[in-house]
Amino acid sequence: MSFRIGQGYDVHCLAKGETLWLGGILIPHDKGTVAHSDGDVLIHAICDAMLGALKLRDIGTNFPDTSNEFKNIDSKILLKKSYDLVKGKGFEIVNIDATISAQKPKLKSFIPDMEKTMAQVLEIDEEQISVKATTTEKLGFEGREEGISSSAVVLVKKSDSGK
């Protein structure tokens, strides 16, 4: 197959005193994610989508939260390592479409920096990454500000220079 699609999803609890990283950007907020790594749900969902597209399991299998190697790791490193696995199979990213679900903070103004940061890590054009943010109209754990989630879809294709 020359094209493959992967889907990813991640969720983390929110707590006071923690930092909030999304798309490789530190977001000012009174709460942050509780996680083994930096808890960047957007990057984690994208990693799972990339890995899933090529049956490379998931982020937890490749970078287990039981390993001290990944304790407090910058998720941009996990993004790069995940894409290295994809490229190792001879594939490259066509596009990424992702959504963050959070009642607060409002994320619209941070999205261009998220897209730029992740594009740089992945060495792709910013036009290949679309990030959106939504609230859940105060419904569910996101709406109650207990947690934050993200979903992503990634399309990859066999690289012209690939295997």
UniProtKB/TrEMBL annotation:
Metal-binding is among the record's keywords: yes
Keywords for this protein: Isoprene biosynthesis, Lyase, Metal-binding
Domain (2-C-methyl-D-erythritol 2,4-cyclodiphosphate synthase) ranges: 3-156
Residues noted as binding 4-CDP-2-C-methyl-D-erythritol 2-phosphate in the record, renumbered to the chain: D10, V11, H12, H36, S37, D58, I59, G60, T134, T135, T136, E137, F141, R144
Matching Gene3D superfamilies: 2-C-methyl-D-erythritol 2,4-cyclodiphosphate synthase
Needed cofactors: a divalent metal cation
PROSITE patterns (alphabetical): ISPF (PS01350)
Note on how the cofactor is bound: Binds 1 divalent metal cation per subunit.
Pathways per UniProt: Isoprenoid biosynthesis; isopentenyl diphosphate biosynthesis via DXP pathway; isopentenyl diphosphate from 1-deoxy-D-xylulose 5-phosphate: step 4/6
Residues binding a divalent metal cation: D10, H12, H44
EC number: 4.6.1.12
Recorded superkingdom: Bacteria
BP GO terms, sorted: isopentenyl diphosphate biosynthetic process, methylerythritol 4-phosphate pathway; terpenoid biosynthetic process
Annotated site residues (Transition state stabilizer) in this chain: H36, T135
Catalytic function, reaction form: 4-CDP-2-C-methyl-D-erythritol 2-phosphate = 2-C-methyl-D-erythritol 2,4-cyclic diphosphate + CMP
Molecular function (Gene Ontology), one example: 2-C-methyl-D-erythritol 2,4-cyclodiphosphate synthase activity
Subunit structure: Homotrimer.
Database matches in PANTHER family: 2-C-METHYL-D-ERYTHRITOL 2,4-CYCLODIPHOSPHATE SYNTHASE, CHLOROPLASTIC
Stated role: Involved in the biosynthesis of isopentenyl diphosphate (IPP) and dimethylallyl diphosphate (DMAPP), two major building blocks of isoprenoid compounds. Catalyzes the conversion of 4-diphosphocytidyl-2-C-methyl-D-erythritol 2-phosphate (CDP-ME2P) to 2-C-methyl-D-erythritol 2,4-cyclodiphosphate (ME-CPP) with a corresponding release of cytidine 5-monophosphate (CMP).
Similarity comment: Belongs to the IspF family.
Name of the protein this chain belongs to: 2-C-methyl-D-erythritol 2,4-cyclodiphosphate synthase
Organism in which the protein naturally occurs: Maribellus comscasis
